Every structure is written in structure tokens, then in C-alpha cells.
Amino acid sequence: MLRDSKNRIWIGSFGGGLHLAQRQGDELTFRQINMRNEHQDMTRGMMQDSFGWIWVGCNEGVNVFDPDELILDESKYII
Hints:
Layout: E1 2-3, E2 9-12, E3 18-24, E4 27-33, E5 43-48, E6 54-58, E7 61-65, H1 67-72
């Protein structure tokens, strides 16, 4: 799990992909963000760098993204 610089909670699972916790009023929902394949959906670790980009280690290497861009377009990540 990672709390980013904008206080959003990102949850990486082992096989279920990346999730973003979103609060709308009193309701908490989880938005699933699927990467390219099942090996990229196996999260090993996450961190945010000083530029705001989130780095996600997975079974197939590393996925890197600007969280604001990924929220708008789920294809906006680099492998």
C-alpha cells in the first residue's frame, strides 16, 4: 500500500492488479487498474519519487506512472 503526495491510497495486490481507494461522501470504493498482463498485476512493492511518479515493482519488472495521468487514462504507464 502507498499513500501518495495527494493523500490518495494505492493498493497493490498479488494477482488482482493495482487499486485506488476513492471516497465519495460516506462511501469508500476501490477502482481496479489492470496492467498489461497477469505478471504485471502481481505487485511486489510501491514508492513515490520526488517528482510525484509512482514506481510499482511487479513480477515482470517495474511499472512507472504519474498518478494524475493514470487516473484519467489507464494506459498512461511505462513498463
